[in-house]
Amino acid sequence: MNRPPSGSSPTIAVVGSGPSGCYTAQFLRKLWPTSEIAVFDALPAPYGLVRYGVATDHQGAKAVTCQFDRLFERDRVRFLGNVRIGTDLDFAELVEAFDIVVLATGLMQDRPLGVRQDPRARVLGAGILLRGLNGYPDLGRSPELSAPLGSRIAIVGNGNVAIDALRLLAKDRSALAGSDVDDRVLDLLRPLPVEQIEVIGRSTASNAKFDLAMLRELGHLSNVDLAIGETAGDEENPVIGLLRDLAASRDKARGVETGEEIQVTFHFGQSPTAVTYADGRAVLETEGTDDASRIRRYEADSIITAAGFVAGDDSAPVSWSAPNVWRVGWLRRGARGTIPENRRDASQISESIGAALREGLLAPGKPGLSAVWSQIAPFVVEFDDWRRLDEHERGLALDSRCRRKVTDLDEMVGVAVGSGRPALQST
Amino acid sequence: MGPIQILFGTESGNAEMVADDIADALEGRGLEHEVSAMENFEVDLLTSADFAIFITSTYGDGELPMTTAPFHDALVTAKPDLRSLRFAAFGLGDRTYDTYNNAVTVLASTLTELGATQVGETGRHDASGGESYSDTALGWLKQLLDDVALD
Fold this sequence. Notes:
The structure holds two protein chains of two kinds.
Chain A: E1 12-15, H1 19-31, E2 37-40, H2 48-52, H3 59-62, H4 65-73, E3 77-80, H5 91-97, E4 100-103, E5 109-110, E6 116-117, E7 123-125, H6 126-133, E8 152-156, H7 160-170, H8 183-189, E9 196-200, H9 212-218, E10 224-228, H10 238-252, E11 262-267, E12 270-278, E13 281-288, E14 296-300, E15 302-305, E16 309-310, E17 325-327, H11 330-333, H12 339-358, H13 373-376, H14 383-396, H15 409-417
Helix pairs in contact in A: 1-12, 6-7, 14-15
Chain B: E1 4-9, H1 14-28, E2 33-37, E3 51-57, H2 69-78, E4 86-93, H3 102-113, E5 117-118, E6 123-126, H4 133-147
Parallel strand pairs in B: 1-2, 1-3, 3-4, 4-5, 4-6
Helix pairs in contact in B: 1-4
């Protein structure tokens, strides 16, 4: 093999195979065509947020994995799944083994509302909800996702995640054609159609974070009646304008009602103050963001919080730090920004990594994967193994779904590595 | 004829991947070509180009991607004379949204207004449709090359 002069081709470990990790691997591959690049993931399946966070009915957004597949199939980037850094392999050893370590573990924990909460009230994070509907391993068994959400739901938040939650709970089974929704989890959460969804946000409509395209998409759902509730007087803006247009065009189309309409009402400028419990229902208490005397109460069978994401057990701890360690994406910037925005972050971080090596701040020479291989070899799931699981999941799909994910972690590994796995090979 | 200019504008990298695929296919046919990101390409260079392939995604609520927009702005501002340019256009979009493939339509119409001649149909990939980017793009390219003499 034609290697460039020694020192110019570092060994690279990326922790996390979500979009930020994969984009970083992609940019670093362009920088160093012959470097060893190893992408670790705690799960036996790659792509993190794309597989488990992006809404199951947004397969177009999930198609970004075509790019990442190439990394592993064509561009000689190694996928090392089922390896949890910090548990299966010490972070310190990783830092010793690789010239460059990039942490891209993202942020997965739903940010709590931060208000007093009656424990009897059913409150569920939108992140867990989306992961559950996405067939995240072993999550379907969790008590949080095992009971019906009820017919009246309040969603707190005005970002795209709130709209994802709303849309997935509103869509009937047939509207989810082409998705890879976990129907078992959906049926547990929604045995009967939802009747009413209220979306409550702190921001005014002008400052709401969701994309207009996401709202427009709601206009296509034939079983959804959109309405505008609290506006705090902020009504001349594109969001309210669009909601009005969508509501009006629905009114026009009346006469083809199915009898199972879901009333969806958007409220803006209301900040949660408490979650209480009354008459068997959760109650979201709010006050006006600008006017604390404008107090409202939203009764619901369940409250779904979409208030952003924070570090949880799956995020790299702050203590994981060394001169050859970089952070990228949500882990570095906080949980904001779309996949393209985080691609730009990956590009910038890759450039700083390149600069650090050019300026001699780091001297490559560490052995890379071979130094840790014996530790991970017994259980590692590589890309070819994942391909087996991938095909298996596509084959399991029923009812116009594009995939049915295997949700038992042991079963995922079993399908991936096969029963009669040949003797493990060293690199 | 000079090299075929392949120009892409992307947000998530998919249009760049399609540009790479098209470049590989042209390579396979022995057609000289150059791939550039629109953001790194001076619009004046188009006045001396013979043939260009434009690939762009659509972003947000039908907007041009951040890497296509400055290029498009430069076209609108500098108004280069593109009467000697022939071009083909391929868009990446998502039918889930009303603004499906808006950006490539905007770009192609601006190029046409500046005197360039579009050949072939505008290619369009629908990310929600399940067909791979490569299959759609290479199918479109094959049709284009069958219809138009580029060498």
